[in-house]
Structure formats: C-alpha cells, structure tokens
C-alpha cells in the first residue's frame, strides 16, 4: 500500500514511529510511514534497524521501492525476526551513513554546476561518488576541485521546491540528465534548489541533501576518466586532494 514517505519532506528525520502494514514472503516489510530512503536515482537506500516494543531490534540490510514509487520495502538481514502486521515499531536510520550520502549527493549537484554538460550517469556512495558527463573537452581536476570548494565555502542554502508532473513535462529543459528520468509518477516533483531564488542551481531530484553547501565539507575530484568518445567520468571523494594516496 502507499507509504507516507517522511524523508521526502525532512531529510534530517532519522527516527519515527510506524505500523507494519505488510510482510512479504521474501521477508520485506511495509510500513504506514517511514523515514528510510529507498534506493533510487543513483543513491543507495538507508540501513538501520526497527525497534520493537520489547526493545529488540530488526536490523535492515536495504530499503527499496516495491512495484511502484509509492511503495517502500524494508528488507531485514538474514536471521532477523519478522514483525506481525499491525505491530508498532520505532524506526532508526543509520544516521552517520545517511548524512555522508546527503553530503555526497549535494556535492554531485555542485559538480553539475561547475561542469555544465549533460549528465549521462551518476552513483552516490558513502566515500566516493561518480558523475558521468557527455563531453569531449579536457578539463583539469584540480581546477574543478577549487571551483567546487568555492561553492562549498560560499555556504549557499539548499532547499526543495515542489512542482507538478505537468509543470515538469512543460519545462523539459530543467532536466540535466540525458538517460535518467526525473522522479515522476507521484503527482509532484521535488526540485533541489541551491542559492537564494535558485540562483546557483535547480534540478529535479528525489534524493536526500544537506541544507547548506558548507555541510558538504572538504571534497575533491580524485580522478577524471575517459569512458567512450564523448563521455567523461568524474570521481568525487571526501577530503583534500592527495588524502587517498
């Protein structure tokens, strides 16, 4: 059944109460509401645990969507107890992991500002993320790093605006990705905006992000790889250049 996905409106919500609405044959658990982000758009789903009334824990290995985007399935690790339909639980997101993913995802948006080329692919990770661009130009990774860090230091606000699916369809030019469809199908689409009045960027995205760019922290472009004639892969890592050496 459709879930009240609390994370869509509050990226910093790491715990909430919920009621079990379904338990699948493959052990996946559905809840009436959740603060767990489900794998989508290149960002991994949340991990953490579900706390039962007796204090015991059901540890989750992944969170994913069901048949549609309005269904979220919480998948326990092997050997975990299964709750009963109607049981009340307290949800606890692995916050340190989620926050790193929020910082990384925001960094990917900043990279798309510095490199204003069509995006052909992306993957957000805890320690390294990648963004692929449709480009042939040679570009210096240290120069890109400096421009990224300038956006971080300026501490621009990051916030959501909501538009309808129809408004997005009428304005296809706001989509930077060539191959990935924006998160449509729920009736409304979230625009991740950076800077006052979206002065720096505005992009349809259903992922989780920090609230200001300085929260991204120190990042750098570790590598730029040639992936085909007209494709370049940028690898973003935390820390200063040379930290991974």
Automatic annotation (TrEMBL):
| Coiled-coil regions listed | none
Q: Which InterPro entries match?
A: Ala-tRNA-synth_IIc_core, Ala-tRNA-synth_IIc_N, Alanyl-tRNA_Editing_Enzymes, Thr/Ala-tRNA-synth_IIc_edit, Transl_B-barrel_sf, tRNA_SAD
Answer whether the UniProt record assigns the keyword NADP to this protein. Answer: no
List locations, semicolon-separated: Cytoplasm
Tell me a GO cellular component: cytoplasm
Which Gene Ontology molecular-function terms are recorded? Answer: alanine-tRNA ligase activity; aminoacyl-tRNA deacylase activity; ATP binding; metal ion binding; nucleic acid binding
In this chain the Alanyl-transfer RNA synthetases family profile domain maps to 1-245
Biological process terms in GO annotation: alanyl-tRNA aminoacylation
Alphabetically sorted, this entry's keywords are: Hydrolase, Metal-binding, Zinc
Q: Which first-to-last residue range defines the signal peptide? A: none
One Pfam family here: tRNA-synt_2c
Cofactor(s) this protein requires: Zn(2+)
Alphabetized PANTHER family for the sequence = ALANYL-TRNA EDITING PROTEIN, ALANYL-TRNA EDITING PROTEIN AARSD1
Protein's recorded name: Alanine--tRNA ligase
